[in-house]
C-alpha cells in the first residue's frame, strides 16, 4: 500500500481517537507499564505516589511512542501480514506522516517529562529504549537478520530497569536480572509464535528464524533458549527482590516451560500441521503467563516485605 493510497483513504473519513491509541500498541504498552511498575515498587527506595504515577505514565507514553514509530516504518510489512493488516496505517485510517509525528512528539515529551519528574538516568534509559526499538530493531534487525528477536528483545527488557532507576537513581544486580529475565524470555516466546505464523513472515519477507533456517532449527532454538532462561529466572529468587514465594512460582513455571519446549522439540511438521500447531500455540499462551507471573511474584514479595512476610 502506497502513501498516496493511504492518504486518499484517510481523506474519505477522518481518523478517530481510537486509531491513534491503536498506534501506541496498547497491549504491548500494558506489559511495559506492568514490568516498569514492578521494578519501581520492588526497589529498596520508597517513591512518592505522585512521582511514581507520573513516572509510570511517562514510561507508558515512551513505550507508546516506540509502537507508533514501529508502525510508521513497518506499514509495508504490516499491510502484507494477516496478523497486522488491520492496523491503522495499512487500513488507511491514519496517515504515515501523522504516525511519525505522534511517535516523535511522544518520544521527546516522555523522555523530557520523566527526567523532570524522576531523574535523568531513568530518562536516558527510556530514550535509549525508544531508539533501540525504533531504529536498531525496527529499521535494521527486523529486516536483515534472523537474530532480530534475540538482539531486539533488549527493547522490551528495559522497562523494569527504568522503574528501578526512577526509585534508586541507579542500576543494580536486581534490575539487570529483571532485564535479563525479559531478554531471555523473548526469543522462545516469539519463535513459538513464528512456528504457527510462518507463512505471514514468509509473505512479508521478514527473515524470522523459521523462514531462514526452517521450523526444525527453530524448535531446537526454542528448547536451548528455554534452558538458558531457567537459571536467570531462578537466580532472581536469591536476590533482595526474591524470596520463598517467588522461588516456588519460578520453579513451577520453569519446569512447565521446559516441558513445553521439550514437547515442541520432539514434534515433526506433519504432526504439527495435522493438529494445527496445537502444542506450539499452547506453549505461546504459557509464555504470556510465564512473564506475567514471574513479575507478579516479584511484586508480591515487595508488597509482603514490610509485614515481614516477603523476602528471605
From TrEMBL:
Gene Ontology molecular function, alphabetical: protoheme IX farnesyltransferase activity
Keywords: Cell membrane, Heme biosynthesis, Membrane, Transferase, Transmembrane, Transmembrane helix
EC number of this enzyme: 2.5.1.141
InterPro entries listed in its UniProt record: Protohaem_IX_farnesylTrfase, UbiA_prenyltransferase, UbiA_prenylTrfase_CS, UbiA_sf
Major localization class: membrane
Domain of life: Bacteria
Pathway terms, separated by semicolons: Porphyrin-containing compound metabolism; heme O biosynthesis; heme O from protoheme: step 1/1
Gene Ontology biological process terms from the UniProt entry: heme O biosynthetic process
GO terms under cellular component: plasma membrane
Transmembrane annotation, as ranges: 28-44, 50-73, 94-114, 120-141, 148-171, 177-201, 222-239, 245-262, 283-304
Gene3D superfamilies per record: UbiA prenyltransferase
Miscellaneous remark of the record: Carbon 2 of the heme B porphyrin ring is defined according to the Fischer nomenclature.
Self-association and partners: Interacts with CtaA.
Family per similarity comment: Belongs to the UbiA prenyltransferase family. Protoheme IX farnesyltransferase subfamily.
Known function: Converts heme B (protoheme IX) to heme O by substitution of the vinyl group on carbon 2 of heme B porphyrin ring with a hydroxyethyl farnesyl side group.
Protein name: Protoheme IX farnesyltransferase
Gene name of the record: ctaB
Amino acid at each position: 500500500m502506497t502513501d498516496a493510497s493511504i492518504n486518499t483513504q484517510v481523506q474519505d473519513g477522518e481518523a478517530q481517537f481510537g486509531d491513534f491509541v491503536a498506534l501506541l500498541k496498547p497491549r504491548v504498552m500494558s506489559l511495559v507499564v506492568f514490568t516498569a511498575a514492578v521494578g519501581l515498587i520492588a526497589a529498596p527506595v520508597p517513591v512518592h505516589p505522585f512521582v511514581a504515577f507520573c513516572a509510570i505514565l511517562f514510561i507508558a507514553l515512551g513505550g507508546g511512542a516506540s509502537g507508533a514509530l514501529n508502525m510508521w516504518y513497518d506499514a509495508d510489512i504490516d499491510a502484507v501480514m494477516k496478523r497486522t493488516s488491520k492496523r491503522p496505517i495499512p487500513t488507511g485510517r491514519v496517515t504515515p506522516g501523522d504516525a511519525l509525528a505522534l511517535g516523535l512528539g511522544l518520544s521527546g515529551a516522555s523522555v523530557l517529562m520523566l527526567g523532570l519528574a524522576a531523574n535523568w538516568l531513568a530518562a536516558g534509559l527510556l530514550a535509549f529504549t525508544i531508539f533501540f526499538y525504533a531504529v536498531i530493531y525496527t529499521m535494521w534487525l527486523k529486516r536483515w537478520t534472523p537474530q532480530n528477536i534475540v538482539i531486539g528483545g533488549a527493547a522490551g527488557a528495559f522497562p523494569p530497569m527504568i522503574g528501578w532507576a526512577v526509585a534508586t537513581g541507579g542500576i543494580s544486580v536486581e534490575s539487570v536480572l529483571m532485564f535479563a529475565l525479559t531478554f531471555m524470555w523473548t526469543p522462545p516466546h516469539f519463535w513459538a509464535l513464528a512456528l504457527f505464523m510462518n507463512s505471514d513472515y514468509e509473505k512479508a519477507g521478514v527473515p524470522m528464524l523459521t523462514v531462514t533456517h526452517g521450523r526444525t532449527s527453530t524448535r531446537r532454538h526454542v528448547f536451548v533458549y528455554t534452558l538458558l532462561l531457567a537459571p536467570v529466572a531462578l537466580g532472581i529468587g536469591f536476590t533482595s527482590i526474591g524470596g520463598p514465594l517467588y522461588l516456588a512460582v519460578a520453579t513451577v513455571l520453569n519446569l512447565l516451560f521446559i516441558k513445553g519446549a521439550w514437547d515442541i522439540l520432539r514434534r515433526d511438521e506433519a504432526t504439527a500441521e495435522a493438529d494445527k500447531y496445537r502444542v506450539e500455540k499452547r506453549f505461546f499462551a504459557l509464555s504470556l503467563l510465564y512473564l506475567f507471573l514471574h513479575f507478579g511474584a516479584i511484586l508480591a514479595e515487595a508488597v509482603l516485605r514490610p509485614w515481614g512476610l516477603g523476602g528471605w
